[in-house]
Amino acid sequence: AQKVTQAQTEISVVEKEDVTLDCVYETRDTTYYLFWYKQPPSGELVFLIRRNSFDEQNEISGRYSWNFQKSTSSFNFTITASQVVDSAVYFCALSGINDYKLSFGAGTTVTVRA
Amino acid sequence: DTGVSQNPRHKITKRGQNVTFRCDPISEHNRLYWYRQTLGQGPEFLTYFQNEAQLEKSRLLSDRFSAERPKGSFSTLEIQRTEQGDSAMYLCASSEAASGDNEQFFGPGTRLTVL
User: What percentage of chain A carries pLDDT values higher than 70?
Assistant: First the structure.
Protein backbone atom coordinates (compact mmCIF):
# COMPACT_ATOMS: atom_id res chain seq x y z
CA ALA A 1 0.00 0.00 0.00
CA GLN A 2 1.15 3.53 -0.69
CA LYS A 3 0.50 6.50 1.52
CA VAL A 4 1.32 10.19 1.21
CA THR A 5 1.11 12.55 4.15
CA GLN A 6 1.07 16.32 3.93
CA ALA A 7 1.00 17.46 7.53
CA GLN A 8 0.52 21.15 6.73
CA THR A 9 -3.11 21.96 6.04
CA GLU A 10 -2.70 25.66 5.31
CA ILE A 11 0.19 28.09 4.91
CA SER A 12 -0.20 31.84 4.61
CA VAL A 13 2.69 34.08 3.59
CA VAL A 14 3.31 37.60 2.39
CA GLU A 15 4.44 38.05 -1.19
CA LYS A 16 8.16 37.48 -1.79
CA GLU A 17 8.52 35.14 1.17
CA ASP A 18 9.69 31.58 0.54
CA VAL A 19 7.25 28.72 1.13
CA THR A 20 8.29 25.15 1.88
CA LEU A 21 5.74 22.34 1.65
CA ASP A 22 6.37 19.07 3.45
CA CYS A 23 5.59 15.63 2.07
CA VAL A 24 6.26 12.26 3.67
CA TYR A 25 5.46 9.02 1.90
CA GLU A 26 5.25 5.29 2.53
CA THR A 27 5.73 2.60 -0.09
CA ARG A 28 6.93 -0.97 -0.35
CA ASP A 29 8.20 -0.39 -3.86
CA THR A 30 11.95 -0.09 -4.28
CA THR A 31 11.56 2.20 -7.28
CA TYR A 32 8.86 4.79 -7.62
CA TYR A 33 7.99 8.29 -8.83
CA LEU A 34 7.16 11.33 -6.74
CA PHE A 35 5.23 14.31 -8.02
CA TRP A 36 4.01 17.74 -7.04
CA TYR A 37 0.79 19.09 -8.54
CA LYS A 38 -0.85 22.50 -8.13
CA GLN A 39 -4.61 23.04 -8.06
CA PRO A 40 -5.49 26.75 -8.43
CA PRO A 41 -8.97 28.07 -7.62
CA SER A 42 -10.05 27.21 -11.16
CA GLY A 43 -9.80 23.55 -10.11
CA GLU A 44 -7.59 21.99 -12.79
CA LEU A 45 -4.61 20.00 -11.49
CA VAL A 46 -1.37 21.23 -13.01
CA PHE A 47 1.76 19.06 -13.07
CA LEU A 48 4.78 20.81 -11.54
CA ILE A 49 7.65 18.37 -11.01
CA ARG A 50 8.53 14.66 -11.00
CA ARG A 51 11.37 12.83 -9.31
CA ASN A 52 12.53 9.22 -9.73
CA SER A 53 13.39 7.36 -6.55
CA PHE A 54 16.76 6.32 -7.93
CA ASP A 55 17.82 9.93 -8.49
CA GLU A 56 18.25 11.85 -5.26
CA GLN A 57 19.81 14.89 -6.84
CA ASN A 58 17.91 17.97 -5.81
CA GLU A 59 17.15 20.54 -8.45
CA ILE A 60 15.90 24.01 -9.01
CA SER A 61 13.53 24.98 -11.78
CA GLY A 62 12.84 28.67 -11.86
CA ARG A 63 11.28 29.58 -8.52
CA TYR A 64 10.61 25.93 -7.66
CA SER A 65 13.06 23.63 -5.91
CA TRP A 66 12.72 20.28 -4.19
CA ASN A 67 14.51 18.28 -1.58
CA PHE A 68 14.20 14.52 -1.94
CA GLN A 69 15.59 12.42 0.91
CA LYS A 70 15.02 8.71 0.48
CA SER A 71 16.42 7.94 3.94
CA THR A 72 13.58 9.87 5.59
CA SER A 73 10.97 9.24 2.85
CA SER A 74 10.47 12.94 2.37
CA PHE A 75 9.95 15.00 -0.76
CA ASN A 76 9.69 18.66 0.21
CA PHE A 77 8.92 21.44 -2.23
CA THR A 78 9.90 25.11 -2.02
CA ILE A 79 8.56 28.14 -3.82
CA THR A 80 11.08 30.96 -3.72
CA ALA A 81 9.96 34.59 -3.69
CA SER A 82 6.26 33.69 -3.67
CA GLN A 83 3.74 35.60 -5.76
CA VAL A 84 -0.01 36.04 -5.39
CA VAL A 85 -0.51 33.75 -8.41
CA ASP A 86 1.09 30.93 -6.42
CA SER A 87 -2.02 30.80 -4.21
CA ALA A 88 -3.41 27.31 -4.70
CA VAL A 89 -3.69 23.86 -3.18
CA TYR A 90 -0.50 21.85 -3.64
CA PHE A 91 -0.57 18.07 -3.75
CA CYS A 92 2.26 15.61 -3.34
CA ALA A 93 1.71 12.27 -5.12
CA LEU A 94 3.41 8.91 -5.47
CA SER A 95 3.27 6.05 -7.97
CA GLY A 96 5.19 2.86 -8.49
CA ILE A 97 7.30 2.43 -11.59
CA ASN A 98 4.94 -0.30 -12.80
CA ASP A 99 1.88 0.73 -10.81
CA TYR A 100 0.53 3.72 -12.63
CA LYS A 101 -2.13 5.02 -10.30
CA LEU A 102 -1.22 8.13 -8.33
CA SER A 103 -1.66 8.21 -4.56
CA PHE A 104 -2.18 11.79 -3.42
CA GLY A 105 -1.76 13.51 -0.09
CA ALA A 106 -4.59 15.62 1.31
CA GLY A 107 -3.02 18.81 -0.01
CA THR A 108 -1.66 22.04 1.48
CA THR A 109 -3.49 25.28 0.81
CA VAL A 110 -1.05 28.11 0.16
CA THR A 111 -2.27 31.69 0.38
CA VAL A 112 0.09 34.42 -0.74
CA ARG A 113 -0.98 37.90 0.40
CA ALA A 114 0.06 41.02 -1.46
CA ASP B 1 -3.73 19.74 -28.91
CA THR B 2 -5.91 21.39 -26.29
CA GLY B 3 -5.24 18.97 -23.46
CA VAL B 4 -7.62 16.66 -21.63
CA SER B 5 -11.26 17.68 -21.90
CA GLN B 6 -14.23 16.56 -19.84
CA ASN B 7 -17.96 16.97 -20.30
CA PRO B 8 -20.12 18.09 -18.73
CA ARG B 9 -18.29 20.42 -16.37
CA HIS B 10 -21.15 20.38 -13.89
CA LYS B 11 -23.97 17.92 -13.32
CA ILE B 12 -26.80 18.19 -10.83
CA THR B 13 -29.00 15.16 -10.47
CA LYS B 14 -31.54 13.66 -8.12
CA ARG B 15 -30.74 10.65 -6.02
CA GLY B 16 -31.45 7.45 -7.87
CA GLN B 17 -30.80 8.82 -11.35
CA ASN B 18 -28.05 7.59 -13.67
CA VAL B 19 -25.33 9.93 -14.91
CA THR B 20 -22.61 9.58 -17.53
CA PHE B 21 -19.45 11.62 -17.90
CA ARG B 22 -17.11 11.80 -20.87
CA CYS B 23 -13.35 12.28 -21.04
CA ASP B 24 -11.30 13.01 -24.15
CA PRO B 25 -7.59 12.47 -23.44
CA ILE B 26 -4.63 14.07 -25.16
CA SER B 27 -4.66 12.46 -28.59
CA GLU B 28 -1.36 10.58 -28.49
CA HIS B 29 -1.85 9.30 -24.93
CA ASN B 30 -2.72 5.63 -24.61
CA ARG B 31 -3.33 5.58 -20.83
CA LEU B 32 -6.44 7.11 -19.32
CA TYR B 33 -7.29 7.41 -15.62
CA TRP B 34 -10.35 8.32 -13.57
CA TYR B 35 -10.05 9.85 -10.10
CA ARG B 36 -12.58 11.21 -7.62
CA GLN B 37 -11.95 14.22 -5.41
CA THR B 38 -14.11 15.27 -2.48
CA LEU B 39 -13.90 18.63 -0.77
CA GLY B 40 -10.68 19.14 1.15
CA GLN B 41 -9.12 15.90 0.00
CA GLY B 42 -6.66 14.80 -2.63
CA PRO B 43 -7.85 12.88 -5.68
CA GLU B 44 -8.49 9.15 -5.19
CA PHE B 45 -7.85 6.63 -7.95
CA LEU B 46 -10.87 4.89 -9.43
CA THR B 47 -9.72 3.06 -12.56
CA TYR B 48 -7.37 3.18 -15.52
CA PHE B 49 -7.18 2.01 -19.12
CA GLN B 50 -4.34 1.24 -21.43
CA ASN B 51 -5.79 1.64 -24.89
CA GLU B 52 -9.23 -0.02 -24.64
CA ALA B 53 -8.32 -2.44 -21.85
CA GLN B 54 -9.40 -1.60 -18.31
CA LEU B 55 -6.38 -2.78 -16.33
CA GLU B 56 -7.17 -1.82 -12.76
CA LYS B 57 -10.18 -0.86 -10.67
CA SER B 58 -10.14 0.53 -7.16
CA ARG B 59 -12.26 -0.98 -4.41
CA LEU B 60 -13.85 2.49 -4.32
CA LEU B 61 -15.49 1.62 -7.62
CA SER B 62 -18.71 -0.03 -6.48
CA ASP B 63 -20.96 -2.08 -8.75
CA ARG B 64 -22.90 1.09 -9.54
CA PHE B 65 -19.88 2.53 -11.33
CA SER B 66 -18.77 1.44 -14.77
CA ALA B 67 -16.17 2.86 -17.10
CA GLU B 68 -15.50 2.17 -20.74
CA ARG B 69 -13.01 3.16 -23.39
CA PRO B 70 -14.41 1.35 -26.41
CA LYS B 71 -11.98 2.43 -29.11
CA GLY B 72 -9.03 3.39 -27.00
CA SER B 73 -9.76 7.07 -27.41
CA PHE B 74 -12.42 8.78 -25.28
CA SER B 75 -13.78 7.22 -22.12
CA THR B 76 -17.09 7.33 -20.28
CA LEU B 77 -17.80 6.90 -16.59
CA GLU B 78 -21.36 5.96 -15.66
CA ILE B 79 -22.84 6.01 -12.19
CA GLN B 80 -26.11 4.17 -11.77
CA ARG B 81 -28.66 4.89 -9.02
CA THR B 82 -26.70 7.86 -7.73
CA GLU B 83 -26.44 8.47 -4.00
CA GLN B 84 -25.67 11.68 -2.15
CA GLY B 85 -22.27 10.25 -1.25
CA ASP B 86 -21.37 10.23 -4.94
CA SER B 87 -21.24 14.03 -4.92
CA ALA B 88 -17.65 14.89 -5.83
CA MET B 89 -15.37 16.16 -8.57
CA TYR B 90 -14.60 13.42 -11.09
CA LEU B 91 -11.21 13.93 -12.72
CA CYS B 92 -9.81 12.34 -15.82
CA ALA B 93 -6.11 12.19 -16.67
CA SER B 94 -4.04 10.77 -19.48
CA SER B 95 -0.43 9.80 -20.03
CA GLU B 96 1.81 8.32 -22.69
CA ALA B 97 3.10 4.85 -21.82
CA ALA B 98 6.18 5.22 -24.02
CA SER B 99 7.41 8.21 -22.04
CA GLY B 100 8.14 5.91 -19.10
CA ASP B 101 7.65 8.64 -16.52
CA ASN B 102 3.94 8.27 -15.64
CA GLU B 103 3.44 12.02 -15.99
CA GLN B 104 -0.33 12.40 -15.94
CA PHE B 105 -2.16 15.39 -17.37
CA PHE B 106 -5.51 16.21 -15.84
CA GLY B 107 -8.71 17.60 -17.29
CA PRO B 108 -10.84 20.29 -15.63
CA GLY B 109 -13.12 17.73 -13.99
CA THR B 110 -16.86 17.13 -13.81
CA ARG B 111 -18.47 18.33 -10.61
CA LEU B 112 -21.38 16.08 -9.62
CA THR B 113 -24.01 17.17 -7.13
CA VAL B 114 -26.58 14.59 -6.07
CA LEU B 115 -29.63 16.09 -4.40
Answer: 100
